[in-house]
Specification:
The protein has 13 helices and 18 strands. By secondary structure, the chain is α/β, with parallel strands linked by helices. It has two domains: 89 residues, Urease, subunit C, domain 1 (Roll), CATH 2.30.40.10; 293 residues, Metal-dependent hydrolases (TIM Barrel), CATH 3.20.20. The strands form three sheets. An eight-stranded mixed beta sheet has the order 3-2-1-4-13-16-17-18. Strand 10, helix 7 and strand 11 form a beta-alpha-beta unit. The longest helix is centred in the C-terminal third of the chain and has 15 residues. 53% of the residues are buried. The model has no long low-confidence stretch (mean pLDDT 97).
Length: 422
C-alpha cells in the first residue's frame, strides 16, 4: 500500500482497531494488519471520515478582503472539514459555465481541501450545461449577500423543471421576501422582527409546492414552526447550523450574531436541538459566511449578515458528543455520510472505493475556542470561549495536510464533482 493509517477507526457504524490501506488517494483495503510505504499509527485515537461542510461562502472571487479559497480552506481543514461546498453569491455570481470554471480555477490553485461549486438559480440560466459541473443549484428566496434574489418561484418554473430532470439538488435559502419587514434595525430583536418565523414557513411551503419533482434541500432551518413541514416530506432534505442550535436572540453578541435567517427565540433553538436528537435534519453545515470585523462593527442596520464557522463546526459537535448530547453515529451521519450521499460524492465514509479523507481525534483534548488560534481571514468568531475538540491530524485523499492545528501538507484541493466524472 502507498499509505496505511492505523487507529481506532469508525467503520460501518462502529469503532474497530484496524488499518486503512490507501492507493491513489482512495481507500483500497481495510484490515487488522497492513504494510505500506508510509505508515501513520495513531494508537488508540479515533479515526473518523473527514467532514463535508455543504454550506460555505469563501467569498472568492470578488470579496477576498473577507475570505479567500486559501484562508477559507485552511480554516476548514484545521477543523476537520476535508470537502467544502461553496455557494454562488460571489462577485460575479456563479450563474454561467464561464463563472463556474473561473471559480474552479481559483479554488484549484488555492484550496487545501476538496470542493464542490453551487450554481445560482435565476431566470435564463443554462441548467443543462451547469448541471454537468456544479454540485447543485442554489435558490435565494430571501435577500442576503449578493444579487441572486428570486422571491417567487413563478419566473423560474422552467429552470426548476430542468433541474428536476438533471436530478441535481436544489438547495434553498427559504425566507419569503414578500413577508419580510423592512423597518430600521437596532439589535438582534429588530432583525428577528423583520424576518419572522412565518417568512421561513411560507417560503418552505411555496418552494415545496413549486418544486415537487426536485431533490429539494432546505438550508439553515431556524424556526421550530418549520419542523412539521419537513417531517415525512419525501425527497425533501434539510440542514441545520451550529449557530441556530447554540445561539439565540438573547445572545449578547450584537452585530456578530446578525445572520440570515436570524437567530430566533430560545424555544426555537431548543426545539431544533430536540428535533436533532430525535433524528431530524439530514445535514449539519456551518453556513460559513465571514465579513471583516470593521464591517461587523458598523451600525446594526448597515452591518452585513453572516458569521464564520467552518473551522468550529466539527469541534463544537465533537464536544457535544463528549457531553452525550449527541452520539457518534448521528454526528458522522450528518457531517459525513449524508452530505456525501446527497451530493453524489465518493466521500464521507471509511469504506473501500471512497476517497481517503480522514480526521484523527483525541476526545480528551477539549479546549476553549480562541480566535487567535483560528485561521479564517475575518479574524473573529461568535463561538469565542466555547468548548471544542479540534482534530489532531487531517488527511485529504491520503495526504496529511494538517497536524496539531497547523498546515503541514501541500494544497491538494480539487473539484470533487468534475474529478469524479473525468
Amino acid at each position: 500500500m502507498e499509505v496505511v493509517v492505523e487507529g481506532n477507526c469508525y467503520v460501518s457504524g462502529r469503532f474497530e482497531r484496524c488499518c486503512i490501506g490507501i492507493e491513489n488517494g482512495r481507500i483500497a483495503k481495510i484490515a487488522k494488519m497492513l504494510e505500506g510505504d508510509r505508515v501513520f499509527s495513531f494508537g488508540n485515537r479515533i479515526v473518523l471520515p473527514g467532514a463535508i461542510d455543504s454550506h460555505v461562502h469563501f467569498r472568492d472571487p470578488g470579496m477576498t478582503q473577507k475570505e479567500d479559497w486559501g484562508t477559507g480552506s485552511l480554516a476548514a481543514a484545521c477543523g476537520g472539514v476535508t470537502c467544502a461546498l461553496d455557494m454562488p453569491n460571489t462577485r460575479p455570481s456563479t450563474t454561467t459555465l464561464t463563472s463556474l470554471r473561473d471559480k474552479r480555477r481559483i479554488a484549484s490553485s488555492k484550496s487545501l481541501v476538496d470542493f464542490g461549486l453551487f450554481a445560482g438559480l435565476k431566470p435564463g440560466i443554462d441548467v443543462r450545461a451547469l448541471a454537468k459541473e456544479a454540485v447543485g443549484f442554489k435558490l435565494y428566496m430571501g435577500s442576503t449577500t449578493g444579487d441572486l434574489l428570486v422571491p417567487q418561484p413563478s419566473p423560474i418554473r422552467a429552470e426548476i423543471s430542468e433541474i428536476a430532470a438533471t436530478r441535481k439538488v436544489l438547495a434553498v435559502h427559504a425566507e419569503d421576501e414578500t413577508m419580510r419587514n423592512k423597518e430600521s434595525e437596532r439589535d438582534l430583536e429588530g432583525h428577528l422582527r423583520n424576518r419572522p418565523n412565518e417568512c421561513e414557513v411560507s417560503a418552505i411551503r411555496k418552494i415545496r409546492d413549486a418544486a415537487k419533482d426536485c431533490r429539494l434541500h432546505i438550508c439553515h432551518v431556524s424556526a421550530k414552526s418549520s419542523l412539521p413541514l419537513l417531517a415525512n416530506a419525501g425527497t425533501v432534505t434539510s440542514e441545520v447550523t451550529p449557530h441556530h442550535l447554540l445561539l439565540d436572540v438573547s445572545s449578547r453578541l450584537g452585530t456578530l450574531a446578525k445572520v440570515n435567517p436570524p437567530l430566533r427565540r430560545r424555544e426555537d433553538r431548543q426545539g431544533l436541538f430536540q428535533a436533532l436528537k430525535n433524528g431530524s435534519f439530514d445535514i449539519i453545515a456551518s453556513d460559513h459566511a465571514p465579513h471583516t470585523i470593521d464591517e461587523k462593527h458598523e451600525d446594526f442596520d448597515y452591518a452585513p449578515s453572516g458569521m464564520p464557522g467552518t473551522e468550529t463546526l466539527v469541534p463544537l459537535l465533537l464536544q457535544h458528543v463528549k457531553e452525550k448530547h449527541m452520539d457518534f453515529s448521528g454526528m458522522v451521519r450528518r457531517l459525513c455520510e449524508n452530505p456525501g450521499d446527497l451530493f453524489g460524492l465518493r466521500k464521507g465514509r471509511i469504506q473501500v472505493g471512497y476517497d481517503a479523507d480522514l480526521m484523527v481525534v483525541d476526545m480528551d483534548s477539549t479546549v476553549r475556542i480562541r480566535v487567535d488560534k483560528l485561521h479564517s481571514k475575518c479574524g473573529w468568531s461568535a463561538y469565542e470561549g466555547m468548548l471544542g475538540i479540534f482534530p489532531r491530524a487531517v488527511l485529504v485523499r491520503g495526504n496529511v495536510i494538517v497536524e496539531s492545528g497547523e498546515q503541514v501538507g501541500e494544497r491538494v484541493g480539487r473539484d470533487a464533482v468534475v474529478s469524479a466524472s473525468a
